[in-house]
Amino acid sequence: MLSLLPETTLAAAALFFFFKNLELFKLESKKAVLLFGLAAASASVIGLFFHGEFFNGAYRVDNFSRFFTLLISFAYMIACIIFTRLKECDQSRVDEFFFFTSMAALGLVMAVGSVELMSMFIALEVSSYPMYIITTFRKGLGRQFEASVKYIIFGAVSTALMLYGISYIYGLSGSTFLVDIASTLPPKLGNPMAALGVLLFMGGLGYKLAAFPFHFWAPDVYSGAASEVTTFIAALPKITATALLIRIAHLFTGIEIVPLTISVLAVLSMTAGNLMALGQTGLKRLLAYSAVSHAGFILVGLIALGNGGAQAAMFYASVYALMSLAAFMVAVEASGRDPVDIPIERLKGLWRKSPVMAVMLTIALASLAGLPPTAGFAGKLFLLISAWKAGFEWVVIAGVINTFIGIYYYLKVIKTCLVSDGRENGFAPAPFYLKAASVVMAATMILLGIFPNTLLDMAGSAFRALVM
Amino acid sequence: MITELHHNTLAYPVLTLTTFLPIIGTAALMFIKRDESARIYSLILTLVVFIISLPLYFNFQPGLQGFQFVEQHAWIPAYGLSYLMGVDGISLPMILLTTFLGPICVLCSWRYISNRTKEFLACILLTQGIMAGVFAALDLVLFYIFWEAMLVPMFLIIAIWGGPRRIYAGVKFVLYTLAGSIFLLAAIVAIFSHTGTFSYPDIFLKGLPEAWETYLFIAFFIAFAVKVPMVPVHTWLPAAHVEAPTAGSVILASVLLKMGTYGMLRFNLTLTPAASVSLAPFVLVVSAAAIVYGGMLSLAQNDIKKLIAYSSVAHMGFVSLGIFTFNLNGLQGGMLQMINHGLTTGGLFLMAGMLYERTHSRELSTNSGLGRFMPGFAFFLGLFSLSSLAFPGTASFVGEFLCISGAFRNNLWLGAWMIPGALLAAAYMFRMFLRVIWGKCEHEPVKDIDLREWTCLLPLAVLVIIFGFYPSPILKLMNPALETLVGHINSHVPQASQMATRLAAALLN
Amino acid sequence: MVHLSWYLTVSAILFCIGVFGFLTRRNIIMMLLSIELMLNSVNLNLAAISHYMEDLRGQVLVFFIIAVAAAEAAIGLGIVVTLFRHRKSIHTDQIVSLKG
Q1: Closest chain A CA to residue C30
Q2: Domains and CATH numbers, chain C
Q3: Taking the complete model, does pTM exceed 0.95, yes or no?
Q4: What ipTM is given for this predicted complex?
């Protein structure tokens, strides 16, 4: 039973807040969410050591799924720490908010463990609906409904694309179990339906990752939703999307057109994201476009799965989740008084108000920009090496050029938060645990850049579990 | 062989400590409350690092081939990365220069920096450690990490504590450097995909495919040329120098620029020798242009720091020219010029900073005639100016002389072209010196340099004079390494002429 | 007997109509309807494939999709209604305050 501990913990969190909403418990919600965040993270660590197969083989707990469960649970924990500072979220719906986030995290974990297309789809939907709903949880009459409509409409289309892909894969292989698909599909890989099916399926996941051309929702949802919600949406679904993309892509490595298409999309994604981020003045929109470009980098790993690309993509996805959470931790601190987006100018003088946060943001942005010795650099390096090994030299060139474009707008933010002096921008002093968390996160971002071995080894053994 | 590794025999890991002691020492600054104690702490730390690095000089055995004081540990085995540090006769003087300038940088900012002192000292310490790492790293990725890691602290030094256009200058510095180094990253990835290792000695042993050499050379060269800076990409340097605080300018001029020429010596010449030889004419032309162009620009400046900055462009032109003559004289001259330029220009920037502290202006007109109040200052300015124009008896003379003689050996016209460059140096340096010391004075009296400033300048001045009369200790250090290098390049000359023919054919078609 | 490819063709046409409608319509309700069309083409695909392979899993999946699509439509319409209350319009040309 211990092998389902992480899922159980998240489900318990969701149930707790569901009943808390009915005023059955007295415990303060913000304390409870912190507690459940820690519980989920520790459960995922325990979960690493137990494997098993459930629901007639539709749900498998192995190194691969547990690696991503670990990432999601830790991201959930950090998100929970940030949730204690709810600033833009409607305070009267705190319990609902926590219920929906726990539910979404549960869905994401379930999707990672699913090895059958149907359950994968259901789990993804379980994670999507709460996110559609919490997008509207913002104080005042901002743009949250508009953002939510965009999110849900693009989400529905991508679901339809994914399902269409599933129907073709099912039609070709006669099964929805990945194991059967892996054994029956290879002779039929030449069939154009296989390529079409897998590309449509991946398109649906590309939406979760905010990769080009499925990125249109990202800037609006990022800026329209409350900052806490964006924190969640920006980090957690990306981990699951990476996991599922690797799961699917490695079944179809035999089709030549698949890596080719992905490589084109990856380059377009990083270039489009970076170019559009250049002109942004809002912090959340800037991070949204930067997310598009990072989605491109994660996709680079998929074109070189056998050449270490899978490990590199897993490493990069985990690092990206961390960097994004770190950046949004500061964004949440800076938010609260803007109708839509947080202007970058709001960060002026952050170094005076909260030097710890300013330094952490600088490290996070340097890591996003891919400057050594941060984890972002290590991840990019691994991705580029594997892409070159796989024969995609032009992707490497595009990648390094994009690194250069990216530095410009990240530097703009670094400049604002460390150099510019602000008059009265009213940062409330952060509580001690938040400072401690940001120190730990900043240290992790650097340590992972210098000593990536442990995470890389875990990613390696996870990928081996998948291939077997 | 260049690739022999002689492991560290000292009682402590000298290169690791030299590199990481300042970096780790930065953390302690967080816990220091008062600015004054932070300054003292940083001074002591940099002095300790300098003392730690001294055995590098005394225990170095010039006769041994390859790298010494080597430290080798597995780092990221999955990607063939290792922690490989070592020095040879080329990198050793650079590391010593870095550690030597550390305390001076802290000292010269004692009064100059008064806001956010701790952060400033942290940035200085970080940069110092990272720069030592650049010169010691023998693993390409390790090298690249140090190379890039310097961007953020250096950006902050310029952008927080700099002059009025500091942010423009800082951003320009980062963008130019990064624009160059992305090619370096691509080249490193390409090299790894071919050789399967990032370790410099292993790559050297395995060799690189001939077809790639030209591309790799260009990729490496662009990255290093931006740092040097060579002429078309030099425009970040005056901006950064003018805006940076004194310590920032000293670091930039004395060590940071040398990273570019060091990179050329270390990577371009050894890993892509044939391409180096076949493409050398371009480099020589650009360097010669830099010498004259930098000199002329320098002559036209009224801002003291800008004047020195453009003179740096010219001086670094001598270095790259000396390196790409590929004879022993030229290489020796280039190396010596790197060290001497570090001492001389560092000294000049220190003095420009001292003037600024007194008059709050860097204009020649405002500072005109101040020499009458400051005899001590006049002495040092005279010495460093003479050294900068390569007056016999000062350090730069030896370097520049060797560079020119190397150029004459390479090509008569090239050597002849350098004479006006050397003359220009005399013109712009004397112009500045005369204006500042004997010009018409409209400024109220200022104080002469005090004890702290003496302590800053004296070590530099002493070294300038010693190396001017007796350069053989450094020459002895680096000669064996340079001789091997010359031999290595000469062995690739036939291959290079084939390559040049092919290149010419490709260009003509 | 009708060959499987007929079903697949019809469903592909349906799917393309859905995509076309989604891209050209500017009314959110119409966009949601187009998405419904796309989902139903998937259902048609799955049912046909399932019948020809004599494997019930496809039809089970159809039921799941119908249920999920209903839930999605419920949430989507709920949010559209709130949006309408605020903006008095569900025409995407008039909802342009977030220029995405």
Answers
A1: A153
A2: 4-87 (1.10.287.3510)
A3: no
A4: 0.92
